[in-house]
Amino acid sequence: MFYKTDVLIIGSGIAGLYSAIKISEFADVVLVTKKEKSESNTNYAQGGIASVLDPNDTFANHIKDTLIAGAGLCDEKSVEILVKEGPGKINELIDIGTGFTLKDGKLDLVREGGHSFNRIVHAKDLTGKEVERALIEKASKSPNIRIIENTLAIDLITEHNVTGLKHLPISSRHCWGAYVLENESGHVIKVTSRATILATGGIGQVYYHTTNPPIATGDGFAMAYRAGAKMGNMEFIQFHPTSFYDPNPKSKSSHSFLISEAVRGFGGILRNSSGEAFMEKYDVRKELAPRDIVARAIDTEMKKRGDEYVFLDVTHKHKAEIIDHFPHIHANCLNKGIDITNEFIPVVPAAHYICGGVCVDEFSRSSLTGLYAVGEVSMTGVHGANRLASNSLLEALVFAQRAADDIKKNIKDFPVCHEEIPDWDDSGTLSADEKVLITHGVRELKQLMSDYVGIVRSNLRLEFASRRINLLYHEIEEFYKITKVFDSLIELRNLVTSGYLIVKSALLRKESRGLHYTLDYPTPDDSKTPEDTLIQNTYQKS
Ligand SMILES: Cc1cc2nc3c(=O)[nH]c(=O)nc-3n(C[C@H](O)[C@H](O)[C@H](O)COP(=O)(O)OP(=O)(O)OC[C@H]3O[C@@H](n4cnc5c(N)ncnc54)[C@H](O)[C@@H]3O)c2cc1C
To answer: Boundaries of CATH 3.90.700.10 in the chain?
Structure first.
């Protein structure tokens, strides 16, 4: 069985759905997504989308704030595109029925850390859910979009799958679609396309604590790398300083809910296991220091004391005020057995967002002809070494539009090779009866990434991690070759490759900058231009 389409899109978050809506105006789209269509990082985004919508705000302000956050590594042209094309995208979301929160009949624009102006549009504190709802509704009405749920992309199809073309160099590769696994039947289907968009989101599940849902297993990064696409800046992982730590192992979920920055803004105090307030040892701004500083301080306290979490304390505030300001957090914690009005909240930093990924140009084109990457899986250069809050949903919209524009212009010229592409061949493989290898592998990877490749790094820790990941990689590849594929095996293979890429990028960067902090090079190396570092820190499979 196979599908043939103009454009294959992998992923149904904001990037995949918005790309599909735009492309359906001129071509047929098959969109595959590995779970139900709404399950994505997008669905969990709370804060909102940044854009210049107040007449007193300026593009120059938003550009400047983004460049400051990016710590010298942003691509200035991409930032300008992001900021200038942003307002039009917000208006389009409104046109398709997204219900953003209003105040006195106008968009309620709020401010977040690092922004010099009120420019965050939001739908209460469930912005992602509302955007995802509106996009799914719109996409479902288009006769040109076929959404196939519970279907997991395994690998991209390029020359290396086609007899007679395997010998061609990576530099001349095209992408002609993907092999996908139908979860229910276990069948692997070939989907061929003229253009393919990776919109597979993030990587949080590589770590023990993450705010990302279970779908965030880094599949897109690993598929692109295996296919030979250029990758970069994978070391820049944003850790949210305060996610809820569930002390009860029985009710532990695979991802943690956020205890938002606003709780520290409200007067929340961070305390270690002895009840001591510790932030003043690290920064004069104490709890209100930037995210990366707070995350590092918490990490240091935990590592020094051998603790698994610290506490956030709001018990000195009035009960009614706490409940009024934080109804969701109060209810979620109560659900886990913690009454935040009279108990400390156990918190831990959690992997939240990755700034690097598949290198793309200003039209979201990867280094492989016909392969585009949009959203969190891509590296457009807008985030540099650190993402400004609420710029990621905006990036997905702006660069999805640009991918659609480019595909519209060039689709007729993309070469097709449908007939020569072989079906999936799993002859000689066996059904797995060793699933313990998967659960153990996932646990081992998360533990070593959290211990050695977390918030504070060093050459020694990275080299330890590198050796262990190599071993895991070879074991999983061996198992993969002899086994009929299934979802958790594919995901573990991708998690291990993603971990490998993060370590590789971290070892390449001989400085501390933005989200990457290493004890061996504790300061930024300003002797290199951003262009130099970009060349040094991007790579592809040889
Ligand atoms: C808790 C939380 C809060 C956040 N808050 C904000 C915020 O306020 N503002 C902001 O700008 N950003 C925020 N972010 C970041 C933002 O939500 C993400 O960067 C953004 O949603 C990514 O969108 P995406 O479409 O690229 O990926 P996702 O929304 O993650 O979508 C990826 C899709 O790909 C599918 N997929 C993955 N692998 C495969 C595969 N192999 N085969 C088939 N399908 C696959 C997934 O199932 C999913 O449908 C937040 C993130 C989190 C986790």
So the answer is: 242-348
CATH fold of 242-348 reads: Flavocytochrome C3; Chain A, domain 1 (3.90.700)
Task: State pLDDT tens for residues 198-245.
Answer: 999 999 999 999 999 999 999 999 999 999 999 999 999 999 999 999
Ligand 1, residue 38: give the atom nearest the CA. Answer: 49
Query: Is domain 2-201+216-226+355-420 annotated with CATH 3.30.559.30?
Result: no
Q: How far is the CA of 348 from the centre of ligand 1 (A)?
A: 21
Spot the catalytic one: 194, 264, 291, 296.
Answer: 291
Please enumerate in sequence order all residues whose Cβ is within 8 A of that of 226, keeping only pairs 6 or more positions apart, or say none: 155, 156, 497, 541
Task: Pinpoint the residues of the chain covered by CATH 3.50.50.60.
Answer: 2-201+216-226+355-420
Q: Over the stretch 442-455, which tens digit does the pLDDT of each residue have?
A: 999 999 999 999 99
- Of ligand 1's atoms, which has the minimum distance to the CA of residue 376? 26
Which residue CA neighbors atom 37 of ligand 1 most closely? 200
Q: Which of ligand 1's atoms lies nearest the C-alpha of 213?
A: 53
Cα separations in angstroms, 459 against 446, 465, 501, 507, 509: 19, 10, 15, 7, 10
Instruction: Tell me the DSSP string of 352-403.
Output: EEES-EEE--TT-B-SSBTEEE-GGGEE-SSSTTSPPTT-HHHHHHHHHHHH
The Cα–Cα gap between 494 and 501 comes to: 10
Please tell me the distance between residue 229's alpha carbon and the centre of ligand 1 in angstroms: 21
Q: Evaluate if residue 337 carries a pLDDT over 90.
A: yes
* 291 tagged catalytic: yes
Question: Whose Cα sits closest to atom 2 in ligand 1?
Answer: 45
Q: Which of 75, 110, 117, 356 is nearest to 229 (CA)?
A: 356
